Amino acid sequence: MKSLTMEKRDALGAGDVQLHLLRYDKTSSNSTGNYLYLLSSDEQDLFKFIELESRRREFLWSRLFLRRVLSLTLGKEMSELKFSRGDFGKPFLEASDLQFNLSHTDQLIACSVSRHRVGIDIERVISGEKAEEQRMLLAKRHFSTAEQDYLNSQPEDSRALVFYQIFTLKEAYVKALGAGLNVPFPGFSVPLPLREKSRWGGWEFFTRVLSPTDIRLAHVVENPNNDFCRYEIFDWDQDYLPGGPLFEHKMFQNN
After folding, report:
1. What is the pLDDT of residues 164-189, one digit of tens each?
2. Which residues have C-beta within 8 Å of that of residue 16, sequence separation ≥ 6?
3. Is 50 a residue whose pLDDT tops 80?
């Protein structure tokens, strides 16, 4: 176990990327309701309109997780963080150059932090004949011609994973741009052939299969100077979400 203490807040350099993962049990009795006041008024209103309890918990935990990560990185209290939104709705920190992005899927929340624009996306790989039909429809609608050709050229037993790899990379790239739906998915291609790390147009693309192997993570970071990027991956324990910085530390370095 390793703590990201306040003394570590200046360690995030221009080429550093931190990926924070929180795996949680949606049936856990661990309550974060006492921390609702830390959310913005808009977020509190959204929380109140979510009817399903598991979704309410996911919404709240993801926002608290983001604030815990940023507070430790900046050496501030969670209550001190002030957020605003850009022209297309992407949130940003006031009075800080720190860039961040958030994604969540069933029982997993992922947060990315860097000094450059970032986008992150995680998706659970769904198998089965019906899921395959849905994937092909989505590929025709959202993939470029090059991406569709690449997907169709893959062995049948690996197409599901390849589809999610392409789709999550596209999601992460659009999120990093911060332009929302104004970027048409078929209008660009992710770097092909697919690799764990690729560079294209001033951006670095990173993808990985998480354990368990049915979750695909994709990350994109702005890298205009073609700098060496150093990745750190942190696995958090849900018991430390509201008040503590302890989590398992793992590191991946970009070669």
Report:
1. 999 999 999 999 998 877 889 999 99
2. 114, 115, 229, 230, 232
3. yes
DSSP 100: E
Say which amino acid occupies 80.
Answer: E
Distances (CA, A) of 222 to 40, 88, 100, 119: 28, 18, 12, 9
Question: Same structural domain for residues 64 and 111?
Answer: yes
Instruction: Decide: 219 and 207 in contact? Cβ < 8 Å.
Output: yes
* In a shared domain, residues 84 and 146: no
CA nearest neighbour of 217 among 253, 150, 164? 164
Q: How far apart are CA 237 and CA 118, in angstroms?
A: 24
Q: Quick one: which H or E segment has residue 163?
A: helix 159-177
Q: Are residues 99 and 126 in the same domain?
A: no
Q: How many domains does the chain have?
A: 2
With CA atoms as reference, report the closest residue to 122 among 102, 149, 97, 145. Answer: 102
Q: Which residues contact 81 (CB under 8 A, 6 or more apart)?
A: 67, 70, 71, 74, 93
Question: What SS3 class is residue 69?
Answer: helix
How open is the CA angle 42-48-52, to the nearest 5 degrees? 130
C-alpha distances in angstroms, 113 versus 21, 25, 120, 219, 244?
12, 24, 10, 11, 19
Dump pLDDT digits (tens) for 80-123.
Answer: 888 888 777 788 899 899 999 999 887 889 999 999 999 999 99
CB atoms within 10 A of CB 47: 17
Distance between start and end Cα atoms, the chain: 25
Do 132 and 112 lie in one domain? The reply is: no
